[in-house]
Amino acid sequence: MHWLEYAVFLGIVVALARPVGLYLARVFERKPTLADPLLRPIESCIYRLLGVRPDEEMTPGVYIACFIAFGALGTLLLFALLMAQNLLPANLPAGGPDAKYLTTPMTADLAANTAVSFSTTTTWQAYPGETTLRYCLQLIGLVAQNFLAGAAGLAVGIAFIRGFSRERSATIGNFWVDLVRAMLWVLLPWSLVGSLALVWQGVPFNFSPYTLAHTLEGSQQTIAQGPVAALEFIKNLGTNGGGFFNANGAHPYANPTPLANFLGMLAIVILPAALPITLGHLAGRERAGWTLLAVMVALFAAGIAVCDAAERRAPPRLADLHVSAGNMEGKEVRFGIADTVLTTVTTSNGATGSYNAMLDSFRPIGVSVPLMNMLLGECIFGGLGTGLYSMVLVALVGVFIGGLMVGRTPEYLGKTITVAEAKLVAFYTLLTPMFVLPLTGIACATPIGRDGLTTNQEAHGFTEILFAYASCMANNGQAMAGLNANTTFYNLTTIVAMLAGRFGLAALALALAGRFAKQIRRTPTIGTLPCDTVTFGVLVLGTTVLIGALCFLPALALGPIAEHLQP
Prior knowledge:
The strands form two sheets. A two-stranded antiparallel ribbon has the order 1-2. The protein has a two-stranded antiparallel sheet with strand order 3-4. The chain is 62% helix and 2% strand. It is mainly alpha-helical and 567 residues long. It contains 18 helices and four strands. Helix 6 (175-201) runs antiparallel to helix 8.
């Protein structure tokens, strides 16, 4: 039955990819939609308030500058809110005391880490939400950033697509127009519907005080309350992650039922899976978009197969007990192995760290799947925009290598890959190992870095550190629970990875899009390598695996592979 669930999930994703992809194309081409009578006046009002001239487009350099400035402003505002949290209304009615519930101090380095985390859609949380943040801060600060940062990421993805859809153009769109339309036509209405569905499934939305309950053993338990539903759906749709509670998607208030979990996973994947179709439609090569989507689906299915096989084997220490349920350590019984594996693979591919199990308890090969997904830049579906340009740049590497091997012109979607474009592609490909591997090495080589390993050492401890920096570089946010990341060292070094993953990769992608937009679109000839065939799909799939192996196989050998081979 578990394979049927996986097949149904992928079937729904593929079925929705085309209608959603064409809808995105209409929205960002500013063509009529059914929502226009309601949203157009709001859009015009926002432009007037911000002083935006929607008909003025931007060069890639200006677009990048606006994207970075918007992220910096969001970071500063959220940092100020975090540092001023004590001035906000308390969690209890009438401003009652909440000090006994909010026990984790908001230090300057933790506030900086959290602000950068949410403004980059990483939502890396080195703190438990229910013991650190007040309701107002969760709503005003975190939920707002989930919308704003998610919309900015989608805007960058659309600008990247314009590099292939335009010719002889010095511009790739207007960042502020793309941002507003992503917010009004996509994230806000879809999140409203999704949040209501979660409330129907039992996710709370209240401002009640924390509930004190007495257990059967006679002890007292504090049950956190709050406006949970406001955060839970947009964190998935905006590919943010980050939970209202420390346990994230494993918490019964955040993710109460298998249906709520399934809807959350669809919310993560639908928009990124539709973007290849948007690319193919706007570039006039829709089959090329389907080819990229097919590669994503194939790699996703491979990850599901490996992770599922690993987690269905009982841990060796339980082998003599004849345990047949597989590795249920760290997993919720209401989800079981199937829903846990689906969530793990989906969240690690979708830049959304809303995991529903403790990854620290996974088998070594099982945890290597989400780790590798993030190290590959989450090119399998990915985040809003990021997954698309990660996969396209992998395809460009394949085009370049394939063209050299068979003597074909290195072109993709009618755009020629010259020396300048090849350098940008190479730099993009190497940026993740350039940050993740040195940061991991520094953390492992220094006492201050090793001090974060509270429960595990050796190969497993190495995997925890590598996983943390891979998660931050991929703007994902999920972590293995054995690493204490709320230290000055990890708060500051993970900021470096988050900023590089958000702005470094986006800047390179937009610079490449700008170069392609200036070119003419060449008509395919007998010397052009086709980009919409099964052969090309296999080439892209092989290139993805090759890049991952060349960049990260030694690190994996020191971590999950070494642990797997231990007796």
